[in-house]
Amino acid sequence: MKLRRLIDGLWISLFWGAGLLILIILVSILGYLLYKGGPALSFEFITGSPSGFPLGTEGGVYPAIKGTSCLVLIAILSSALPGFLTAIYLAEYAGQSKLKELFSITVQCMAGVPSIVTGLFAYALFVVHFGFGISLMAGGLALGIMIFPVIVVTSRDALLAVNNQFRTVGTSLGVSRWYILRRVIIPQAMPGILSGLLLAMGYAAGATAPIMVTAAVVSVGSTTSLFDPVMALPYHLYILFSHQISLENAYGTALLLVLILLAINVAAMWIRSLKGKGA
Q1: N or C, which terminus of the chain has less Cβ within 10 Å?
Q2: Residue 91: count of CB within 10 angstroms of its CB
Q3: Which pLDDT belongs to residue 154?
Q4: Looking at residues 25-48, what average pLDDT do you find?
C-alpha cells in the first residue's frame, strides 16, 4: 500500500512539475522581453513609423501593426466560413462515412504542413498564377489557408461538445436536423467556436514564413490597395534582429507582438468560459 501511494505521489509530482515547467518558461520569456524590450515600448513607438539609417534604428512600428491587423482580417474572413461549414459537416452530417475519415485526415495533414510550404504554395498560386503580386491580399489568403485546419478542428470540437440529448430529444419530437442545428446546437457551441476563431487569429498574427514570400516588405508607405505590399510585425522583427539593425527595437517589437497574442488568447479563454456560465 505504501509503495502504491509513493508511486502515485511521484506521478502527481511529475504532472505538477510538467505544468509548472510550462509556466516557468512562459514567465521567463515574458520577463526577459520586458527587461530587454520594455524601455523601447512607448506611445511613440506604437504610433510612429520606422525611421533612421538603416531603417528601423529609430521610430516605431505603427505601419507593421496596421499591416498585421489587415492580414489577419483577410485571413479570418477568407477561412472562417469554409472552416465552419466543414466543421458542421464533420460533426453533424458525415456520420461514420469514409468521406468523413478522408476529410479528417486531410485537415490533420494540412495542420502539419510547415508554414513556409504553405507560403510557397500561396506564392505560386496567388502571387504568380493569379497575378496578385507581393500584396496584402496574397498574404492574407496564405494565412487563411494556414489557419483553416485550426478553425475546422476547434469548431468541430465545439459542436461535438454540445450535449447529445438536444439532438435526441429534437429528433424524437420530429424536429428537423437543420432546425435543431440552427436554434440549439450552434448557439450552444458558439462560445467555443468564437474562442477557436480568436486562437486562429492569434496564430495568423504571429506567423512569419507565409508572409515573407507573399506580402511583407521592409518598408512601405500608406497602403491603400489590397494589392499593395505591407509591413507586418513578425517580419519587421525578423529584419531588425537578423540584420542587427536595432536589438532594442527588435525586443520592443517582440514584446508588443507577444502582448497582442496574450491579449487574444485571454479573450479566447474568456469567451470559452462563457459556456460554463450558461451564456
Answers
A1: N
A2: 21
A3: 94
A4: 92
Query: What 3 state SS string does the chain have?
Result: CHHHHHHHHHHHHHHHHHHHHHHHHHHHHHHHHHHHHHHHCCHHHHHCCEECCCCCCEECCHHHHHHHHHHHHHHHHHHHHHHHHHHHHHHHHCCCCHHHHHHHHHHHHHHHCCHHHHHHHHHHHHHHHCCCCCCHHHHHHHHHHHHHHHHHHHHHHHHHCCCHHHHHHHHHCCCCHHHHHHHHHHHHHHHHHHHHHHHHHHHHHCCCHHHHCCCECCCCCCCCCCCCCECCHHHHHHHHHHCCCCHHHHHHHHHHHHHHHHHHHHHHHHHHHHHHCCC
Q: What is the residue type of 158?
A: A
Residue range 48-85, pLDDT digits in tens: 988 888 888 888 899 999 999 999 999 999 999 999 99
Please, which pLDDT band fits residue 276 given cuts at 50, 70 and 90? low
What predicted TM-score, i.e. pTM, was given to this entire model? 0.89
Chain-centre distance for alpha carbon 164: 29
Q: What is the pLDDT of residues 196-230, one digit of tens each?
A: 999 999 999 999 999 999 999 988 877 678 999 99
- The average pLDDT across 232-249 equals 91
The residue with cell 496574450 is 262
CA distances from 121 to 45, 115, 116, 125, 126 (A): 34, 10, 9, 6, 8
Q: Taking 80 as the threshold, does the pLDDT of residue 268 lie above it?
A: yes
Cα 241 to Cα 51, 76, 95, 167, distances in angstroms = 16, 28, 50, 54
